[in-house]
């Protein structure tokens, strides 16, 4: 399994601002994912972060709102842009080292509150 | 469409009791995982179990892929077992991991 860290662990932000969340893995991984968990809800995949190319976004999520970077095989960032209270969620980074998304491991999450 | 359904949605147990959580899925799967989300939000892998039975201490899981369901058994529950249990499925056909809505477990001393 991989050891995954996220920064920040939590933040409180003002409406209209942006926040960048970092995800660091202790080993090189092929696939990295970003999920959102709204209060009391299940996890929803935002996008797959691809190294060396643009992220692949799921239906309902767009690059302008959630730009993602993947500069190397151990690091990724997710930015939540022009935030509104509806963006208040836990954002989780996930990795799969097998290359086939067979078994995913999750970071500790970033708890975001937008006022 | 592809679906993952978990039951029950909520469960309250007395410490020491046993429980069974169920996950039904709508199609053939490449993988199925059970996770425990603790009260601090951390998702902890419990089992990777696309088929068969596995045990880890007081927890065990069984997936019957042909009948499209998986069961998570918790025996002699403890207060530290409280949290939300998620079933997540990787369906055949290169779809992303799909999470169920979870079972919220509260174990009372």
Brief characterization of the structure:
The complex is a heterodimer of chains A (115) and B (109). Chain A is mainly beta. Chain A is built from no helices and eleven strands.
Explain how this protein is built.
- The complex is a heterodimer of chains A (115) and B (109).
- With 115 residues, chain A is mainly β.
- Chain A has no helices and 11 strands.
- With 109 residues, chain B is mainly β.
- Chain B has no helices and 11 strands.
- Chain B has strands at 4-7, 10-14, 19-25, 29-37, 43-48, 52-56, 59-64, 69-74, 83-91, 98-99, 103-108.
- In chain B, the strands form 2 sheets. In chain B, strands 2, 4, 5, 9, 10 and 11 form a 6-stranded mixed β-sheet that branches.
| Integer-rounded radius of gyration of chain B | 13 Å
Low-confidence stretches of chain B: none
Structural class of the secondary elements of chain A?
A: mainly beta
Look at the structure and give the mean pLDDT of chain A.
Answer: 92
Taking the sheet with the most strands of chain B, its summary is: 6 strands, mixed
Oligomer, anyone? heterodimer
What is the helix content of chain B?
Answer: under 10%
Are there runs of chain A of 5+ residues with pLDDT below 50, and where?
Answer: none
């Amino acid at each position: 399994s991989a050891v995954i860290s996220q920064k920040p662990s939590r933040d409180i932000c003002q409406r209209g601002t942006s926040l960048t969340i970092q995800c660091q893995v202790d080993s090189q991984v092929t696939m990295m994912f970003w999920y959102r968990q709204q209060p009391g809800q299940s996890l929803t995949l935002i996008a797959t972060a691809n190294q060396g190319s643009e992220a692949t976004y799921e239906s309902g999520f767009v690059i302008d709102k959630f730009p993602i970077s993947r500069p190397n095989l151990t690091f990724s960032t997710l930015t939540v842009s022009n935030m509104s209270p509806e963006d208040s969620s836990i954002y989780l980074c996930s990795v799969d080292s097998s290359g086939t998304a067979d078994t995913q491991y999750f970071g500790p999450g970033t708890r975001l509150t937008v006022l | 469409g592809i679906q993952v359904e978990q039951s029950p949605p909520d469960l309250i147990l007395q410490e020491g009791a046993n429980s069974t959580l169920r996950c039904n899925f709508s199609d053939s799967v490449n993988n199925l995982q059970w996770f425990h989300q603790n009260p601090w939000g951390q998702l902890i892998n419990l089992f990777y179990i696309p088929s068969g039975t596995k045990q880890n201490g007081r927890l065990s899981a069984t997936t019957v892929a042909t009948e499209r369901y998986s069961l998570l058994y918790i025996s002699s529950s403890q207060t530290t077992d409280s949290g939300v249990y998620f079933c997540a499925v990787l369906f055949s056909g290169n779809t992303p991991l799909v999470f169920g809505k979870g079972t919220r477990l509260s174990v009372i001393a």
